[in-house]
Amino acid sequence: MKKLITKKMILELKRKGQTELLIDNQTLLTPSAQDAIREYSVTLVNATARNVAQAPSACPCANDMSTGEVAEQAEIVEMVMKLLEEKGLLKDILD
Questions:
Q1: What are the tens digits of pLDDT across the range 48-90?
Q2: Confidence (pLDDT) at 52
Q3: What pLDDT does residue 66 have?
Q4: What is the dihedral sign for C-alpha 57, 79, 89, 6?
Q5: Are 44 and 21 in contact (CB under 8 A)?
Q6: DSSP the chain
Q7: Please, what is the end-to-end C-alpha distance for the chain in angstroms?
Q8: b/e per residue, 61-83, with b = 16+ CB within 10 A?
């Protein structure tokens, strides 16, 4: 399943003093997240290349959320992704 990283997630990562974000080939970055990554000098680390057996969540804020909150957030992201796909806005990104 694709993971969507937003600017808000990058800002939360920086707020916690973290400078690295684990990603894989299923990670999608919004344009504003890409800008924030450059602005705050966040290092993207390929979890596959690092040979990580089980990478932590790409969403740094998920570690502070209950399982129900994470599920709710995932459900919202899934709904947004589905709507974008139905509108044809993800065709080139997800193919």
A1: 765 544 444 555 555 555 555 666 677 777 777 777 777 887 7
A2: 43
A3: 56
A4: negative
A5: yes
A6: --EEE-HHHHHHHHHTT--EEEE-TTEEE-HHHHHHHHHTTPEEEETTTTT-SSPPPS-GGGGGS-HHHHHHHHHHHHHHHHHHHHTTSSHHHH-
A7: 13
A8: bbeeeeeeebeeeeeebeeebee
Tokens of 14: 């920086």
Distance CA 43, CA 86 (A): 33
- As beta bridge partners, residue 27 has 3
Strand 43-46 vs strand 3-5: parallel, antiparallel, or unpaired?
Answer: unpaired
Residue 70: the pLDDT is 63
Residue-wise pLDDT tens digits, 7-42: 999 999 999 999 999 888 888 899 899 999 999 999
Six-digit token string for 80: 């947004």
